[in-house]
Every structure is written in structure tokens, then in C-alpha cells.
Amino acid sequence: MTQPMKPPEIISTERLTLRKPRMDDAAAVFASWAKYPEVTRFLTWRPHQDITQTESLMKKSIDGWDGDTNFRYLLEIKESGQLAGMIELRMEPSEMSFGYTGARDQWGKGYMTEAARAAIEWAFQQPNIQRVYATTDVENVPSQRVLEKAGMQREGLLLKESIHPNISDEPRDCYLYAIVK
Ligand SMILES: CC(C)(COP(=O)(O)OP(=O)(O)OC[C@H]1O[C@@H](n2cnc3c(N)ncnc32)[C@H](O)[C@@H]1OP(=O)(O)O)[C@@H](O)C(=O)NCCC(=O)NCCS
What we know:
By secondary structure, this protein is an alpha+beta fold. The protein has five helices and eight strands.
């Protein structure tokens, strides 16, 4: 089976440069979102207590680019150089999924929607990618809005899909969103 193409290291949108992370991004990532309980509330990881945890995240994110499946981008705001968040593209033979985290001070400005749209646009330029999907906690309304604004449809409810340890140790119900070519 044909493997999907590796995404480009830079994707440019109107207001953002989506780029491969660097180790020296760790301080900004820690200060902008990794340390905040309100950012990690619906995520699978706990807020970082110190920057060494964020450095490990950066290393893993950079190393991912040597593989075939997981590609994380930082969203750099063109106008200011500040970071608006991170988006991870996960490649499968005929599908792509993605997940994201936004910088706390940049929420509500449409940045993650802009990044998600660009990711979907790239994916649908790949001949073998027919479908793009994402899941989100049933209570994560801002995230659901991002997926809806990116043109995705809610396809279903996934019962006990994912543990979000900042809420509880019980697996949480999630919505499945998708868009097809
Ligand atoms: C989900 C998230 C990435 C959205 O990023 P963003 O750059 O703010 O996204 P957008 O600005 O494109 O859209 C956010 C939407 O949520 C809405 N929203 C709801 N509550 C909000 C809040 N407390 N702050 C900001 N926006 C909020 C906004 O109004 C907007 O919808 P609208 O355009 O219909 O008004 C961001 O909220 C975040 O980082 N959340 C924590 C991490 C997370 O949950 N990630 C997703 C896991 S599936």
C-alpha cells in the first residue's frame, strides 16, 4: 500500500507559519501553554511542573519528524513571532488525524481554526488521503468549534474513548469529527 507523503516542514497560512519545533522553543511552550491546568484539562497529559518536561516534549516532537507517522508543528504568529500553539498531524495509509493545543493568551483569535484548515488542505492534496478526522472530549466546546469551523462533521460519539487524567481516571466519552475529500 502506498504510504502518505511526509508533510512539509513549513506550512504558511495568512497569519501563521506552521513549523517544525526546535529545542530552544521549550521556554515559550512552557510559559505559553504547557504549564496551565486550564489548557490541559481535556488532554491526556498533566500540566508541566518545570521546563525539563517541556524540553522532553520538544525532543519527542523533533524526533517525530524522523519517523513516518507523527508530525508536530508550532504555530508561529507572523506579525509578532509569538507562538499560538501546536498541532500534530498523524498519518495513516489513507487517512490523517490531528490534535492540538493553543497558547493560553491566544485563544479565541481563530488561530487553531486557521492551522486546522491548512492541515486539511495539505492532506487533501495527497492522492491517498481520503479522510481527515479528530476526536475531542464531549465537554470541550472550544475544540468542537475549531473542528466545525474547519468544515468537519460530527460523525459519532465514542464511549469511554480516552482518559483525561486532569478530570478523572475514568475514560471519557469523545465526539468523532471528520471531513472527506
Ligand atoms: C481548543 C483550542 C486549541 C482552540 O484554539 P483557538 O485558537 O482559541 O481556536 P479558535 O479561536 O479558532 O476557536 C475557538 C472557539 O472556541 C470558542 N470558545 C469557547 N470558550 C472559549 C474560551 N474560554 N476562550 C476562547 N475561546 C472560547 C471561541 O468563541 C471560538 O468559537 P467561535 O468562533 O464560534 O466563537 C484552545 O481552546 C485550547 O488550547 N484548548 C485547550 C487544549 C485543548 O483542549 N485542545 C484540544 C484537544 S481535542
